[in-house]
Amino acid sequence: xxxxxxxxxxxxxxxxxxxxxxxxxxxxxxxxxxxxxxxxxxxxxxxxxxxxxxxxxxxxxxxxxxxxxxxxxxxxxxxxxxxxxxxxxxxxxxxxxxxxxxxxxxxxxxxxxxxxxxxxxxxxxxxxxxxxxxxxxxxxxxxxxxxxxxxxxxxxxxxxxxxxxxxxxxxxxxxxxxxxxxxxxxxxxxxxxxxxxxxxxxxxxxxxxxxxxxxxxxxxxxxxxxxxxxxxxxxxxxxxxxxxxxxxxxxxxxxxxxxxxxxxxxxxxxxxxxxxxxxxxxxxxxxxxx
Length: 290
Hints:
- β5 (189-193) and β6 (200-205) form a beta hairpin.
- The chain is mainly alpha-helical.
- Helix content is 42%, strand content 8%.
- The termini are far apart.
- The protein is flat.
- It has helices at 2-19, 24-33, 39-47, 51-54, 78-92, 98-105, 112-123, 148-156, 166-169, 176-185, 216-224, 230-239, 257-260, and strands at 96-97, 128-131, 136-139, 164-165, 189-193, 200-205.
């Protein structure tokens, strides 16, 4: 009977393994053999979870082109649009309407509050002239000069011989360079130029009526006058006790009388004597001081 029972139990075990159901007896035996976890380890696992699980994963940006600058919306800024509008008025040189400015800045898709802000800033801007009668805007240059006659009138009306900076003149007059070249060739203005590009730098008024020709005979007499050598002029000045301009005159420093007459400190006379009990032993050597 024992062999028959063994065969029956082996047959049941094979059926259980074939059906995929775990054997209760084997499960209980494996549970008894495995050690139970300690309470301390279970609490540590709860209190110290994995740090990687707690980290929030940042979404990776898609299609980022690092070689191109980021879109910061600079062109949408109000003051940037004002700068573009002033540059537009400067290049045009004639009064422009608000519609012309809006068309240039492409502000058709913006709301009315944005356009009203642009209009208010332009009307109060120091570089913009607003005409209430015609409702137009124009550029305010440093000097209101846009023609040759206005330039000549401005130069002749100056109280000083300071002249006019050409860079300031070009601020509101695009054709200033050509007008200066023409007036200079006619002898109506004087101009100084840069050595690098020969562009006019400063201009002054000139009067062609003050120009006259010198007699050629007088010019020949003038050129025949022999100019002495610079070294001979320096020697002649030194003989007369004068110092040439190209030589530095060395002045001897006067001695300081106060430094020579330094008073020596007088020896200190005996003060209050405190060692009276040693008067017969101590001696006074103050007279030996230098």
